[in-house]
Amino acid sequence: MTTATPEARAASLFAAVFNIVFEDDPRMTIALHEGNRSRQAVTGALTDDYEMRFDAAEVATLLTSLTRAVAYDRDAIITVAVLADINGDHSYGWAWRIADGAPLDDDAAGPLFDPYTEHTGAEYPYITLAGDLVEPSDDGLSATALTDDVKNVITNHGGSPQPTGSLT
């Protein structure tokens, strides 16, 4: 699979970071850190069915911003933080550059997380976001532990561009 459009790449990135990090965590936050230092995030909670429930509208908004970052922001970073325990006393975090998919080292990632989040992603430099990731389609997301409404948002965002123009 080759994700040719920024929309497809953004949808693929969102699904990929989720899949890389998710391990039945009680809570997960996926954030976009743009080169201009703005931050946008969505936080999800684990359901009784062991799926992560994010607000679908918030995911759609994040995907729109992520698409802009894929297309235009060479300095953008995507991070994921998950609770390490149910009490919320400690979290683990991962961070990647969007432009090349490379993981950030501890020095670069540290400021992106709160003091209670341990940046563990640097321990796995071989886990990158380069190349083909997750196909943003029904088949590609079938084994992803996201709720169906969020899978639909990802699929719709990453799908083939629709023709534009008048119908006259």
How does this model look, in words?
The chain is α+β, with helices and mostly antiparallel strands. 29% of the residues lie in helices and 20% in strands. The chain is built from four helices and six strands; from the N terminus they run H-E-E-E-H-E-E-H-E-H. A six-stranded mixed beta sheet has the order 3-2-1-4-5-6. The model is unreliable at 161-168 (pLDDT under 50).
Essential attributes:
29% helix; alpha+beta
Walk me through the topology:
Elements: H1 6-21, E1 27-33, E2 39-46, E3 52-53, H2 56-72, E4 77-83, E5 91-97, H3 106-109, E6 117-119, H4 148-158
Based on CA inertia axes, which overall geometry fits? Answer: globular
**Largest sheet, order of strands side by side?**
3-2-1-4-5-6
Number of helices, counting only DSSP H or I runs of 4 residues or more: 4
Q: In what range is the share of β-strand residues?
A: 15-25%
Rounded mean pLDDT score:
88
Radius of gyration over C-alpha positions, nearest whole angstrom: 16 Å
Helix content: 25-40%
Concise account of the structure shown:
With 168 residues, the chain is of the alpha+beta class. It has helices at residues 6-21, 56-72, 106-109, 148-158; strands at 27-33, 39-46, 52-53, 77-83, 91-97, 117-119.
